[in-house]
Amino acid sequence: MESTLEELRLLVQARYPFIYLVSFEEERVVRALRWLTGAQEDRLAIWTATSGFRTGDGDLVADSADPMAALEFIDVHEPRQLFLLKDFHPFMDRSQVTRKLRDLVPILERDQKTVFFLSPHPVVPTELEKDFVAVEVPLPSPPEVSKLLGSLVKSQGLEVEPDLYERVVKASLGLTEKEIKKVYTKLLISGKRFTEEGLEALIEEKRRILHRSRFLEYVDLADQISDIGGLGQLKQWLIERGVSFSERARQFGLPPPKGLFLLGVQGCGKSLTAKAVARLWKLPLLRLDLASMFSSGSGGVEQNLRETILVAESMAPAVLWIDEIEKAVGGVAGATAERGPATRVFGALLTWLQEKTKPVFVIATANDVANLPPELLRKGRFDEIFFIDLPTVHERAEILAIHLRKRGREPEDFQLYSVAELTEKYSGAELEQLVIAAMFYAFSHERQVTTQDLLRQARETVPLAVTMDEQVKALKEWSRYRTRPAAYDTRRMDFFEEWEEVADDEAV
Ligand SMILES: Nc1ncnc2c1ncn2[C@@H]1O[C@H](COP(=O)(O)OP(=O)(O)OP(=O)(O)O)[C@@H](O)[C@H]1O
Ligand SMILES: [Mg+2]
């Protein structure tokens, strides 16, 4: 909030006539404007369509509810005054109002008066665009939330251990001040307070509230990096970059990582990786439903993107996951001539990817490049583009091991290398299904699952990549010089030698 206050102060000093404050939070904005007046409360008059103007000392100005009367009041008011018009946008496109606003410009400049407009959605008629400047008021920052929590904890005489305190603050980001206060009050009333249980309730509540931004979903983090089989290069990259969100990394001169583009064959771990990263880095994971945002109709799309980005940034550091991006932006490629809303918004998204300064790490995934606009993958948008191929024989063994272990079996009890050899072109998802199918078979025969069951399943199934051979080949071809392989070069890792030994043993 501090930098926003400073920006507003400068704009007022520079005599900007009209400032559009974009926010859901009226109370916070009013407080900010009061701060701008110094201690002189009477320098701020606030208007609503229902009661008209109310001056700093609380008096109502008679007959000022009509928008034209309100503008007249501003016109004749003495110099050096701030005015706040709440939800004025419905009146903005009346020709009389537009004209009056334009006439006001020189007067406001001369008299050092500034008019603020406040609503969650900025609407400005074209004729007035040049006279307006829009300022997005960010949601409460970590220090602000911390202060809020601190005063509540103190007033209630509660004890909260520092680690939990930090997590409560983090979990509250992305909410408005009012929402935070409500949620905290609810925690106190329910007796959960700021305990582990309270924290869970808080996160649950936030998930509900965040539905406000229709296109963001708060994703639960169940998967870990150790749940990913293979993809060694990608995992190493993630582990290395994880530390760069820290303050220490900043002092060392490192920028926070921007994002990753994961391109790959279906079912080979793209979505899995996105979830595991957030957990590895201990950041909240937000899934952005870009496809439904793009198809959400004209006009509002830009607004939706802006709001969504605002919410995501207010939760920073966070991971923003755009799954199956090709489905959303597929139609955008080549449509530049028309400049439809989707194309414009896509442009805005690219700009944000390139220029964002908040630590929002973007993971975009795709399993097809045919329809991807080339500018998406241009340098500067993402730190790296990884290609996730069908797993190699070593990776297949590792994936089988992971899924057996997940279901309470000891991988050492199986000859996984033999199964891996027999499952060429299987995706990770198909290997998981194979384990499950084998277990079903064993269960129905009332015995433990064995290597033989796995082998039988492998003989019986045809992997998708076989039927989609052409597509997989094309993807591979495209990726060869443009992307970095997610898997390790087969011969490079020590532990692969282990597998070689196992393979030799099994061969005997
Ligand atoms: N490398 C892997 N290691 C372990 N499990 C895997 C791996 N790849 C896939 N799986 C299993 O398959 C499931 C589906 O994979 P995931 O959703 O990550 O695929 P995807 O690449 O996103 O596919 P799609 O292109 O269809 O979205 C995972 O939840 C996991 O159980
Ligand atoms: Mg997926």
Number of strand elements = 13
What is the overall silhouette?
elongated
Q: Write down the domain tally.
A: 4
Mean pLDDT: 87
* Strand order, largest beta sheet: 7-9-10-11-8-12-13
Radius of gyration: 29 Å
**CATH fold group of the largest domain:** Rossmann fold
Report on the biggest sheet: 7 strands, mixed
Count of DSSP H/I helices: 22
**Quaternary organization:** single chain
CATH-level-4 superfamily name of the largest domain: P-loop containing nucleotide triphosphate hydrolases
Query: Would you tell me the structural class of the helices and strands?
Result: alpha/beta
| Helical proportion, percent range | 40-55%
The CATH architecture name of the largest domain reads 3-Layer(aba) Sandwich
Low-confidence runs (pLDDT<50, min 5 residues)? none
* Ligands and ions found: adenosine-5'-triphosphate, magnesium ion
The span between the termini is: 69 Å
CATH class (first level) name of the largest domain: Alpha Beta
Tell me what portion of residues adopts beta-strand conformation. Answer: 5-15%
What's a concise summary of this model?
The protein has 508 residues and is of the alpha/beta class. Helices cover 49% and strands 12% of the residues. The longest helix is centred in the first third of the chain and has 17 residues, at 95-111.
Name a few traits of the molecule:
508 residues; alpha/beta; Rossmann fold; 4 domains; seven-stranded mixed β-sheet; six-stranded mixed β-sheet; elongated; binds adenosine-5'-triphosphate; binds magnesium ion
